[in-house]
Every structure is written in C-alpha cells, then in structure tokens.
Amino acid sequence: MAKLLLPYAINNAGELVHIDAAHKSDNYTCPTCGAQLSLRISKIPKGQKYHRANHFAHKGCADNFCSESFLHKLFKQRAAEYIRMELGRPNRAVWFEWECDKCNELHKGNLLKKATKVVEELDLQVCRPDIALLDDNNNVVIVIEIVVTHKPSPEALQFYQDNKIACLQIKVSDFSECDEVRKKVLHPDIVNICPNPICKRCGTIMNSAKLIVVSTPCWKCSNDMKIAMIVSNNSNHIHSPADFTNEEIKMAQRLGVNIQNRYSQTVKGNYWANVCDKCNAFVGDFYMHEYFYLPHDEEIDLSYKCFYCMEMEQIRREQEEEEDMSKRHEKLATLMANDGNKLCPKCNGILKVRNGRRGPFYGCENYPNCKYTETILE
C-alpha cells in the first residue's frame, strides 16, 4: 500500500477533527498513538500537478502505521454503527451481494436474517473478529473482517468454516471509503460460504441452471428455427441437447424446438441435436456459444445442475468415440491388408475394401460399371 495520509486528529477538547476543520493555532494529537501532529496544508491548488492532499503528519516516521491503524478503526466503528442503526428499524433487512469465488455466481444474503446484536472485537479464543453479529442465543452467525493491510489469519478462517460462521471480508484502502460504509458493507470483497448445494455424485458445488430457447435463421436454408441449450447462471457453461436429460428434451420440444437424435459425420456417432423443421439440417454440439448471445425467447429455471459431471460425461463420450474410431481404423487396416483375396460374383473383378458411413464394406473395383457391394460382418 502507498503511503496513507492521515486526515483526522484529536484536538485539545478531545474531539476528532478533520483536516479541513483544523486551525494552525490549535494542538493536535494522533488518534492512534497520541503523538503530537503538525498540519500539512498544500499551497498548490487541487487538480494541479504536485498537489498533495491536506493532512496531519507525525514528526517521526509513524505516519503510515498510525494512518492504517486509524483507518481500520474508523471504518470498523462506522460499519458497526450502520448495522446497529439497521437493526433498530422495524423491517430489518440488509441485503448484501457478492461474486462467489467457489461457484463464480452472484449471490445475495440478508445480513440481519438471524442477527439481533452487534459486537466489536468479540473474543472467540481463537480470534477476535472486527465485527460479530449474534442471534438471540448469543451465537455468532456472521462476522465482518476489515482488511486494510492484514487479512484474517488461516486459523481464524478455519474456525469460521468449522463453525459454519459466514465471514465477510471488506477491503479498505483510503479514508474516503469511510464515507461509503453502506456501499462497502453491501458489496463485500470475499465471503467464505457458498449457498449452492453440493453434488452427491462428485462432491463439487453445483450451479443454478436454466433452459434457454433462441430463434435464428437456419445455417443451411435460412428458415426460422428454434435452438435450445442449458446454461449456468454465470454463463460459464453452455450445453447442447446432447447433454439434456429425457425430461429436458421433452420440455424443449413442448416449447417448439425440434430435437432429434441425429448421426454426426464429424464424431461418427449419434446424439441429440437441434434440427431445422424445413431442411432437416442440425446444429452441431460445438456451436452453442455462437447462439447464446441472441435474444432469449424462453428461460426456464432448472434449479441446480452439476456442470462438472456433465462435462465429465461429455469427455467420457468423446473418449468412447475416439476408441471406437481407433477400432474402426484398425479393422479397416486389417481388411485392406487382405485386399484382392475376394472376387466379385457379378463381373469377376476384385472386391476392394471401402469405408462408408456405416463402416467398411466390399465394393467392386469396376464401380460404377459394376455396383456390387458386400457387407463385412463383424
């Protein structure tokens, strides 16, 4: 952190004074260490080069330490006062929101859902949170840690985690943020909990999901067609009908989407896909991201889904397809090694191994004059 200038001091009457209300004739002391302070008033107007904000200064070198300590103390006091004020209102609710670092979604929570009391520096043996919110039984339900330079210790964070206490970390770097306490409290930088459920199958945090339907011209015939996809609320995961459950396929079909099980030449296999009603062309599994940003005709809440499991299933399918492709290539190589051993019963030409849509087969070397083919049995 850059050097933090101290804008507050204690005057002779023991009052906290801002630098803008200070007088050179008065004596001022540091609100943190009690040392004598001097006034530093800039002669260069604000906005011009080399202007420095007016501030109080120590005679020694304790400026930054005392400034950081007092910033921490001042913000903590004002945050506690704000929460106490909200606790006194008839309809108690302080809705804060945060971007979760566990599921990457935006969550909301009511700071006062269970809280009835605010305590600063509560001794929890293992740690002393800056602000603790207690319920009617004096159980800690939420703690707030003000982070100026030092983050909560790993032991403190583990204690909160073990005891299922929500910990809100609020980063503060300047005294101007003490005038924005409400905004900072409502948008904490880090929250240690995620309200999303845990997948029983793999143990990862699930994401809220929705079924989306968009309208777009068909890539082949330009006729209007509907496309369905499943996405997470943070848009980090976008999946085609190949990953839908049977119920989700039926749900999309009820919304007018033509979903059919189609054969893909690319992957040499079948999967469920969005299909054009007019020309029967389908949108492949790899093009969903191109359609996500179109206006959404429908958005159906699907509650929570484990996108990790969906992606692992997708990887499993791809591996199976690769293994199947490898086996086909091996089979084709073996058959081609025996080319010339079979004769065409129609024209007596040599039967050659051909690789078709449904796998290898024998075809006459005299094609197209002779169109004899023979199935190669497994």
Number of strands: 22
Mean pLDDT: 90
- End-to-end gap: 72 Å
- Beta-strand proportion: 25-35%
- What number of structural domains do the residues give? 4
Helix/strand/pairing class, anyone?
Answer: alpha+beta
| Low-confidence spans | none
Q: Based on CA inertia axes, which overall geometry fits?
A: elongated
- Reading the helices and strands in chain order gives EEEEEHEEEEEHEHEEEEHEEEHEHEEE
Q: For the largest sheet, list the strands in their spatial order.
A: 8-9-10-11-12
From the alpha carbons, calculate the radius of gyration and give it in angstroms.
Answer: 34 Å
Helix run count? 6
Secondary structure: helix percent:
10-25%
Question: Sheet bearing the most strands, described?
Answer: 5 strands, mixed
Structural features, described:
- The chain is of the alpha+beta class.
- The protein folds into four domains: 8-61, no CATH class; 72-191, no CATH class; 207-311, no CATH class; 331-378.
- Helix content is 22%, strand content 30%.
- It has six helices and 22 strands.
- It has helices spanning 63-87, 154-162, 181-186, 246-254, 288-292, 307-337; strands at 8-10, 16-18, 28-29, 36-40, 55-58, 95-99, 106-110, 117-120, 131-134, 140-147, 166-171, 190-191, 207-217, 224-232, 238-239, 259-264, 269-275, 282-283, 296-305, 351-356, 359-364, 373-375.
- The strands form seven sheets. It has a five-stranded mixed beta sheet with strand order 8-9-10-11-12, sandwiched between helices.
- β10 (140-147), α2 and β11 form a beta-alpha-beta unit.
- The model has no long low-confidence stretch (mean pLDDT 90).
